[in-house]
Amino acid sequence: MISVVQNVAIDCADPYGLARFWSEVTGCPLHPEDVPGVTEAQVRLADGPALYFNRVPEAKAGKNRIHLCLRPDTSREPEVERLLALGATLVSDRRNEDGSGWAVLADPEGNEFCVLRSASDRAATDA
User: Fold this and answer.
1) Which pLDDT band, with edges at 50, 70 and 90, does 76 fall under?
2) What are the φ/ψ torsions at residue 51 (nearest 5 degrees)?
3) Average pLDDT, the chain
4) In the sheet that 50-55 helps form, which strands lie side by side, from edge to edge?
5) How far apart are CA 90 and CA 115, in angstroms?
6) CA distance linking residue 29 with residue 85, whole number of Å
7) Which of 40, 47, 48, 115 is at 20 to 30 A from 6, Cα to Cα?
8) End-to-end Cα spacing for the chain
9) CA torsion sign, 18 to 21 to 25 to 30?
10) How far is CA 15 from CA 52, 98, 105, 115, in A?
11) Beta carbons of 41 and 22 less than 8 angstroms apart
12) 20-60: per-residue pLDDT in tens?
């Protein structure tokens, strides 16, 4: 017997707004019934669980205990710049001069996530 992860739940103040941000990040659509003002919204990822955004009354407090790690299909640096332009903020820069490491960003409601090196970035520095 096993369990399958159906979704990754993210508490937030504005489910639709945050789902739109993550839809842009991932290039995946929102659930067709999601509209401004809903109390829950979903981004349907192509593979794997959905990202589920649930309205809660309390604000985020402290560091996330779980977070998403993104591996871009292009190079990490342009992806970090794209995400910042979408409304993310840089929390911690853990990138190293040799190209290793990652960038810690936060979405518009302060939920941290990491941007890792792409496969092409890794191939260029691991060779």
Assistant:
1) very high
2) -95, 120
3) 93
4) 7-12, 50-55, 40-43
5) 10
6) 19
7) 115
8) 41
9) positive
10) 8, 38, 19, 22
11) no
12) 999 999 999 999 999 999 999 999 998 889 999 999 999 88
pLDDT at 71 over 80: yes
State the DSSP H helix or E strand holding residue 68, giving kind and residue range, or none if neither: strand 68-70
Structure tokens at 102: 């990652």
Contact between 23 and 30 (Cβ < 8 Å)? yes
What pLDDT is recorded for position 120?
86
Per-position DSSP letters for 74-122, written without gaps between them: S-HHHHHHHHHHHT-EEEEE---TTS-S-EEEE-TT--EEEE---HHHH
> How far is Cα 115 from Cα 77, in angstroms, rounded to an integer?
9
Answer for the pair 120, 29: CB distance below 8 angstroms, yes or no.
no
Q: How far is it, in rounded angstroms, from Cα 36 to Cα 53?
A: 13
Per-residue pLDDT at 122 exceeds 80: yes
Question: 91 in the Ramachandran plot: left (φ > 0), alpha (ψ -120 to 50) or beta?
Answer: alpha
Residue with tokens 């929102």: 30
